[in-house]
Prior knowledge:
The chain is mostly helical. Helix content is 73%, strand content 0%.
Amino acid sequence: MAILAGLALIASNVMVLAKTDWAALRKDAGDGGRMCHALSPLFPLSNILLALLVVIGDSSIKRLTGPFGFLKPWAVRGLYQIFVALHAESACIEADAQTQVVHFVAVVALAAVGGLYFISGLLCLKRVKQAIDARQGRQVQRQQGREPPWMNKGRTHQGKARGARGEHALH
């Protein structure tokens, strides 16, 4: 869902850039007047870059997501998606009605998905931490040449004690 919302946000901002009157922007920048209007293409460009990172972060392609490891935890990913949605909504973009509807739906969807990721991430943090700690404990035990107690399948203390007393397993 976040990928679709990110792609919709990219599409709405591309539509805004496609309908921008570049001659009027150059004229305003040259006159020194309405500098905010002259910088208005920066908002759609930044929205496109931020939404592209949302799409990359939510994809499962290891080559693409590798450099963006900070987006792996769900809580962080959710906060980032909420930030992108708020950034896109705060940019006052002048567009036609159809583009505004696509933009609004993309922003609301991205904020909703970000909220779900954030809440899910907060609820799962304890379980994730326990799983990471258990995995690291197993790796340390493997490196030290010891097996964890739960891996002693079929071997008990009684079996070891019999062998220590000199009794054979065949008796």
